[in-house]
Amino acid sequence: MTEASRTAVAFADLSGFTALNDAHGDAEALEIIDRLVATATRVTGEHVRVVKTIGDAVMLASGDVAMAVVAALDLVAAIHVEPRFPMIKIGIDAGPVLVRDGDLFGRTVNLAARVASVAAPGQVLGTEPIAEAARETGCAEILAIGAVSLRNLPEAVPLFEVLRCDRGVDGHTAVDPVCRMRLEDQQPHPMRSHAGRAWYFCSDVCA
Which of 37, 81, 188, 202 is a plausible cystine mate for 176, CB 3.0–4.6 Å? Predict the structure, then answer.
């Protein structure tokens, strides 16, 4: 096992994957994961690698922290335009990691996973080193979230949301409330009314 310094580690998690699996079945859920891996591989480029999948998450890594930030933003944007795909959330940290047989271990990996767990659908959350690198890219906005308590950590960690400066992603995009699938604007969707509000669904199964 060797140690690598200043490595950015990101986890891209599918939002509502358990509900999606229950609503649409194992075959479609597996196909969604395969598409996530394929999309991540396509948009991350040569400076960022897909390390592995862990359940419904993809782990990314790069020795270039700024490039990892750009890759995370590009992945969110790419998934946003994928048809019939749930939203993703990404957590990133940067620091020393342990490397064994191409896999990564250590505090940086654990912290990135915990940051991803508190991110909202469609959101990229990072630690202070990520915020600093994002400023260097010239193509990102950084919003301070404040110190957030994370599982099994003794102290709250300052977190920052990273946004594309040229983002065209609409924060009000309709999402299926059951399986968290993003809904296509140009497609008709089943609708149900409840408590005076209209709810739209990806399919009759979820409706």
Answer: 202
